[in-house]
Amino acid sequence: MKNLKLFWEVPLRLSLQFHSDGETLRFCAFDIDRNRLFFLSSHNLIYTSHLSSFHDNGVWSRNASLAADAVTVRLDPGDSVTSFDYLMEKEALLLGTSNGLLLLHTVDDDDDDATQVVGRLDGGVNAVSLSPDGELVAVTTGFAQLLVMTLDWDVLYETPLRDGVPEDYHVNLMLSSIGIVIFCEFVFCFDFSGGGNSLPVSWRGDGKYFATMSDACGSDSLLKEIKVWERDSGAMLASSKQESFAGSILEWMPSGAKIAAVCGGKDGNECPSVVFFERNGLERSRFGVDARVKFLKWNCSSDLLAGVVDCGNYDAVRIWCFSNNHWYLKHEIRYLKRDEVRFIWNPTKPLQLICWTLGGQVTVSNFVWVTAVMENSVALVVDGSNVHVTPLSLSLMPPPMYLFSLKFSSHVRGMAVYCKNSKNQLAVYLSDSSLCVVELPSIETWEELEGTEFSVEASHTEMTFGSILHLEWLDSHKILAISHYGFSHSNQTSSTVGGLQGFYLQEVELECSEDLVPGLLTSSGWHATVSKRNTLEDLVVGITSNPVSKHSAYVQLSRGEIQELHANGRIVCNNCSSFSFYSNLADQVITHLILATKQDLLFIVDIVDIFNGELDSKYNNFVRIINNRRKEENESYINIWERGAKVVGVLHGDEAAVILQTNRGNLECIYPRKLVLVSIINALVQKRFRDALLMVRRHRIDFNVVVDYCGWQAFSQSASEFVRQVNNLVLMAVRKALEDHITESPARELCILTTLARSDPPLLEDALKRIKIIREKELSHVDDQGRMSYPSAEEALKHLLWLADSDAVYEAALGLYDLNLAAIVALNAQKDPKEFLPFLQELERMPNLIMQYNIDLRLKRFEKALRHIASAGDSYYDDCMTLVKTNPQLFPLALQLFNDHTKQMPFLEAWGDYLSNEKCFEDAATIYLSCFNLDKALKSYRAISNWSGVLTVAGFLNLEKDEILNLASEICEELQALGKPGEAAKIALEYCGDVNTGVNLLISAREWEEALRVVFMHRREDLIKTVKNASVECASSLSGEYEEGLEKVGKYLARYLAVRQRRLLLAAKLRSEELAASDLDDDAASETSSNFSGMSAYTTGTRKSSAASISSAATSKARDTRRQRKRGKIRPGSPDEEMALVDHLKGMSLTVEARRELKTLLVALMMFGEGETCRKLQQTGENFQLSQMAAVRLAEDTISCDTINEYEHTLEKYTQKVRTEMHKSEAFSWRLRVFLSYE
């Protein structure tokens, strides 16, 4: 669980000598020994630059350029370089040309003969690849020949790449580096005039094998195959099946596990796929890419695969990683299409990427792996345009699984999390330079979001943010960003904004225009504004908020490359592989550092030890001491059982857990003893005894720690609070201690019985089982000496009866189905034998199962009673039915106990009858259908007016046509009575065949378009006029309603503003009088305040008096009931008048159904040619909706204000504002465009 973060990026411009003449960069090579780059341009100039130039001071300045030396390589006219690589052994560059020249250019030689021709190949040089050990060179030619030679230019072997080429076919080769000229006769020729097909070569990391890609002989030119060759002998070991590989991309993973290539998708899928092959040529896996892949390259550690992807309007460098059998897209850097970006990985630094463009911009990007687990133990895993969210405190879901997902409009480049004051906010910056903000609900509600994907909108802004490198929250509405402008990958959609160029520190303010609803995720409506911007001159590698000072942050500047873990100005660990922080405090103050080393040791470090400088003495410099003779429990570290596992997060507080992720991707949760003890002690200090005892039990810690930490005397003072909190836990602990540490004796047994009897609820059956064992030992007369360790059964029973209710003990004895024990309990409880003996004797005469059944009925254990009577045989089937009908919750269990279909049917019918009586007709109908009781199913469906179900069941009953017609007519009438004319119309048309009634019902339902469709389908021209007249009449009625509603909106709003204004004036008057009254004595001021508290109807206070203070609870309840009944009414002068007016205005809004009906009416009017009526209706409806929405917004804006501006807070201004903002919103989608006014 980790994400790839770009923390260091320096783009510099390489000054090309012939830039004005169209000079571009074509190739790049890397010198590992001297850490320098070589670039070859289209004008055959070799530029040499050192990587140290990217660390110089001032490289972030606006006009900084990359220092480089340039030399020219002279080629014949028409010749061009096709391959370019660096030979470290010879300190020279090896160039291959289209005319077949192999050139060796000595980079540090200024003489004219620095470039030498070391060979010439017929057909031209197609590709040159140097072996990883630098001893061999593999060359492919234009004639599809493969040559492998040493650095002394001796040819080890030569072989054709295509099948079917004669063995006596050779390339005419001339080698001249050592003065020897060799001519090989050219006897066979192929026409490869198609040209442009590259023949790539890729070596395995150990140099033992290499792979090539070539066209498949005798097949379509689109089909190619991969061949694997042995280094020493040149023998072909394996080949892949013929595939339609895209381009000539071939890249063998340095670790040797996979060979990467690109081909079209399977089953005609147009999206290409990155395919991985094994050394034997078999396909191992693949993943899809949504664009054409132009180039692929592994990093030196084989954990990252980068590629250049053609995305249509732009090119992008994408970086993937593999974990848990899933390929994650971790990063994307966009470039302009015309730049044709290329890149190489630094051969010695697996997380450094070097990109260059045709125009000479060279960018060095340093990445770092950061944990995807945030401070609140929530994992946020980036995968392309998704962020997968998993709260590890709820469940340990290893990736690629997750709880829910956030979907963004572009690929995610980085993010920042804000978790304070119950707020969970996420800021994400994307590869298209946009910024997104998401506010998440409380983690406790996240289980409801399982499996959901939320689409997140980009924040609205008037300017671009450039290419963001770092992001950090300052507070819930302000973030800090490091961005750069003016480079090829800073902004792909527009030119440089406002002349900005270089790196800037930007403060961005956020505001959400939508209402934040608690418990819901907010992913839209955010507005971002850059409030401050400062130019940066130094390299920034990180920013973090200042926990001490609000609205401030620390900016980390680069001062060289540091590999150790530092804290407080000193080195903590120089072999750290991963770390995290843990807090056991409620305020989340860090208390421990969780540290994993490269030797797979896990250390739990106290923060105090870091500040006190006690690391060496306590943690032995974070290495394993081989000769250490201390016991294992005293060791300061934990051995990580799986090599290479990393710390990805922790669970804070009482959980005291560390989450590790293995190399395979699995998650493991461990509980270090040190953290567990710290959590227990923290709970004891806070006197959370129950939590402490639960942790002691869960982690099998000695219970004595509860007392030993504070001491016996201090603990005894809190004994009452301890007993109150832990209750049963204490009894369980005492009982366990008695059983494990106290020798057997009568007193011990009586104490154990006491803990069982005093539990909540009492464990009487367990106590009686112990007494039963004692009694059986007494009756057996065996081991008389052993019986001395126990009290007598009678003594134990009397002790139990003294501690617990005698009736409860008697029922517990019955629950054990031991009649003798029940009789003994009854006698010792001094029950009347006439009461219990007849009952026990009757039970004794019954069969065993029937006895248990009757006892269960007496004890109201109905589930056990059903199980026992069901096992008694078929003769008791009626008793089972009676029991289940009496206790309907047993119906599901009865269906499980009776597997016979014939025995299940009566239970199903009885269950349906019960549900029908309970008015659960839908469920009853389903159960009736399961037992094929169609008559009752039809009645149940009809009871809830489910006409579809009624008519379907009628079909199953094979009713006659007349019966179905009568049934449909009755249902049609019932639906009309219930106010469902639309559904009634369907029945009238589909079952009754009554077009007149059906059309009239559709008119009643205002389904105008459907009514017209039915009329024309049945060719009833006589009904067209009916529909037309009804639609015109409905339009006229609606226009009148909207005009009346418009007047009401103005009336209610005017009343609201008047009431609000008077309330504000009165509130101001009260405040001034309170200030004047503050000079009076306390009694007078108190009396004045009391008198004013309820004088006005425009205040929310209540008048209090001595009479009110003695009002009864019944009177108060009656008053609340009346207030609840009158809610929603506008009572002039009441304290709730303002809110009632606002609620009434909101209630006047057009519902979704009303808007749908309005649109279908407008369409129908246009069909009838009633354009003027349609225009008038749309205009009045639009005016009403605009006024209603404007009135609601005006009321909401003024409800929280202390003043009302009579010039700003007007309906006209708010109507114009709503018209502008909501012009294209979903609320106005009902309008016809033909009548929209020009805006």
TrEMBL record:
Residue span(s) of domain ELP1 first N-terminal beta-propeller: 1-164, 199-347
Keywords: Cytoplasm, Nucleus, tRNA processing
Domain ELP1 TPR: 852-1013
A single Gene Ontology CC term: cytosol
Domain spans labelled ELP1 alpha-solenoid: 728-843
Gene Ontology MF terms: tRNA binding
Principal subcellular localization: cytoplasm
Domain ELP1 N-terminal second beta-propeller: 381-563, 564-648
InterPro entries recorded: A-sol_ELP1, Beta-prop_ELP1_1st, Beta-prop_ELP1_2nd, Elp1, HB_ELP1, TPR_ELP1, WD40/YVTN_repeat-like_dom_sf
Polar residues: bias regions: 1088-1101
Biased composition regions of type Low complexity, renumbered to the chain: 1102-1116
Keyword presence, Lyase: no
Pathway(s): tRNA modification; 5-methoxycarbonylmethyl-2-thiouridine-tRNA biosynthesis
Transmembrane segments: none
PANTHER family linked to this entry: ELONGATOR COMPLEX PROTEIN 1 (PTHR12747)
Family per similarity comment: Belongs to the ELP1/IKA1 family.
Record's protein name: Elongator complex protein 1
